[in-house]
Predict the 3D structure of the following.
Amino acid sequence: MKGLKIDLPKNLEERLNYLEEISKQSKEFIVQEALIQYIEDMEDIQKHSVLEVLEKGKPRKIYTTEELTQKLGF
């Protein structure tokens, strides 16, 4: 595995240190998990954008949790 060095703003580093302490997980693990989640979210957004283009610009309806709950009758 290749290393990566990044400089963090002081407040972010403090938050990361705190999370490491309370979670008993290493900073490396926490950052890797956060990066995985971020990349997956960005991929989902990209897929959504591509689908809109493929559907010839017809915007897809995006529902809030409340709207979806009502629509499904929960």
